[in-house]
Amino acid sequence: MLTSYAAHFDTPAGYLDFARFGPPSRDAVTATARALEASARADHTTVDALMRAEETARDTAARLAGTDPRHTVLLPNASTGLFHAALGIREGVVLAPRTDFPANHYPWRRSADLGRAAPRWIDPAPGSGVTPDLVRAALTDDVVAVSVSAVDFRTGFRADLAALREAIGPDRLLIVDAIQAFGVASLPWDAADVVVAGGQKWLRAGWSTGFATLSDRALESLEPVLTGWTGVEDVGLFDGAEHPPAPDAGRWSITHLSPVTAAAFAAALDLVERHTVAAIEAAVATRIAELTEVVEACGGRVLSPADPARRAGVLSFTLPDHDPSLVAKALHAEGVTATVRTDSLRLSPHASTPPEAAERVATALSSLGSRPRGSATP
Questions:
Q1: Side-chain half-sphere of 7: how many Cα atoms within 13 Å?
Q2: Strands (E), the chain
Q3: What is the DSSP annotation of 59-77?
Q4: How many angstroms separate the CA atoms of 181 and 161, rounded?
Q5: Cβ(256)–Cβ(51) under 8 Å?
Q6: Using one digit for the tens of pLDDT, what is the confidence trace for 11-29?
Q7: How far apart are CA 282 and CA 279, in angstroms?
Q8: Per-residue pLDDT tens for 319-343?
Q9: Which of 95, 239, 292, 317 qualifies as a cystine partner to 300, CB 3.0-4.6 A?
Q10: What are the φ/ψ torsions at residue 238 (nearest 5 degrees)?
Q11: What integer is the mean pLDDT of 121-142?
C-alpha cells in the first residue's frame, strides 16, 4: 500500500468500487468546507478569491495530462466534454465501440440526429477492447474520428493510445474518454486530440468535477457549437454583441463552474501530482494481483485481461453456479463494496486499499462453498 497517500483517506478497508465512485480525501473535504465557509461570509473580495481555485485545478490537470493551460478547460463532467466533441464535428463517420459505456454513445447519437457526425459501431472481442487491428479493419475514407475509452469500464482493458494514433493517421481525430484511467494509469495522453475525464472516480475529487484537453488539431477542426458566454473573447465586456470563441480550450466553457467543487478538484489533483500516477498505478496493480489470486483460488472466472500490461484498476469476474446478487450479499457481509451487474461482479481497488481487502474477499467467496484450491474437504 502507498502509505503516504493512504494517510489522506478514511475509506473503509473493504471498499472496492473506485471504478464507480472514489471517496474523496480529507484534503478535498476540507477544501470544500473552507470554500463554503468563505462564501457564507462573502465580502467584496470573496468571489474573485474563490474563483482562483479553477485556475489552480486547470493548471494541475494540464500538467498531469502532459499539456498546458491553453489546451485545457475545466468541465462539470466527462459527458459535457464528449458532447462538445461530438457536436463539434460537422460531418463524417466516427468509429465507437458498441460495448462502451453509454456516455460514449449518446453524444454521437445526438450528433447524427442533428445531421452532423454519425457513429459507426465496432465490436471488440469478448474480454478485449478497441485494438489497432479492429480500428484498421473498420477504417474507410469517410471516417473522421475514433472515440474510445482509455480503460474499458467492464473489464479494465487498457487501450493502446499510441498504437491507435498510428493506426488512424495524423488527419483523423482520436477522442478519448479517460474517466476510468486518469490518475490511476500512465498513458500517452498526447496521442489523443481530445481527452475528457470526470473527477469523481479515480481522481477522488467528488461529483461535478472534470476537465478536457484539446490538441491544436482539435482546436482547429472542432466547431465550438456549445460555447457559452464564459468561452468567448472579452468575457467581461457586456456590449450586447456576439463575441468570437476563445482561441484556446477555454472555448468549451459554457458558464462559470462552482468554485466550491473547483477547490475540491484542485486539492484532489494536487494529491495525485504529489504522490505521482506511477506510484498510484503500481500500488493498484499490487492489489489487483492479490484479488485475482483470491478469485481464481475460489474457482472464479476472471473476465479482465490476463496480461497486467493490458488492464488497469478493474477486476471483473463471475463465480460459476452462483448468482452475482448472492455473491454480492456474501461480500457485503464481510464489509466489501463491489460493483454488481446481472452477469458479473467488478472489484476496483485504489492505492489506499489495504491487503486486508483481499482477505475479506477470500472469506466472502469461501462462505459460498467456493473453497480455495488445494484445501481439504471436511
A1: 3
A2: 72-74, 93-97, 118-122, 143-149, 173-177, 194-198, 210-214, 301-302, 315-318, 339-340, 345-347
A3: HHHHHHTTS-GGGEEE-S-
A4: 12
A5: yes
A6: 999 999 999 999 999 999 9
A7: 5
A8: 999 999 999 999 999 999 999 999 9
A9: 317
A10: -100, 80
A11: 94
